[in-house]
Amino acid sequence: MDDIVEDALATPPDADEECSVCGESIPIEEGVVPPEGEEYAVLRAADPERPGVMTERWVHRACLRTYLDESAEG
Predict the structure, then answer these.
(1) Is 63 within 8 Å of 18 (Cβ atoms)?
(2) What is the pTM for the complete model shown?
(3) CB-based contacts of 19: which residues, under 8 Å, 6+ apart?
(4) Using CA of residue 11, residue 13, residue 16, residue 18, what is the dihedral sign?
(5) Cβ pair 18, 26 in contact under 8 A
(6) 43 with 56: CB under 8 angstroms?
(7) 27-39: per-residue pLDDT in tens?
(8) Rounded to an integer, what is the distance from CA 66 to the centroid of its chain?
(9) Which residues lie below 8 Å from residue 59, measured CB to CB, with a gap of 6+?
């Protein structure tokens, strides 16, 4: 349990996330959500392959429809 907490707290505040659909970078700026000029969604879902109850998936707003369509099919 301590390892999971340390991993979560070790994430730098100025990091990049990847879009779950297209794989392109989504810049994250400390204290700014979303960064100015960026439109994205943060989706929380259960993922049996990852630790934790809920996993965040970052998706560009332009990719959101594709993500939802793929989720409905799978």
Answers:
(1) no
(2) 0.59
(3) 25, 26, 40, 58, 59, 60, 63
(4) positive
(5) yes
(6) yes
(7) 776 655 666 677 8
(8) 15
(9) 19, 20, 21, 40, 41, 42, 43, 67
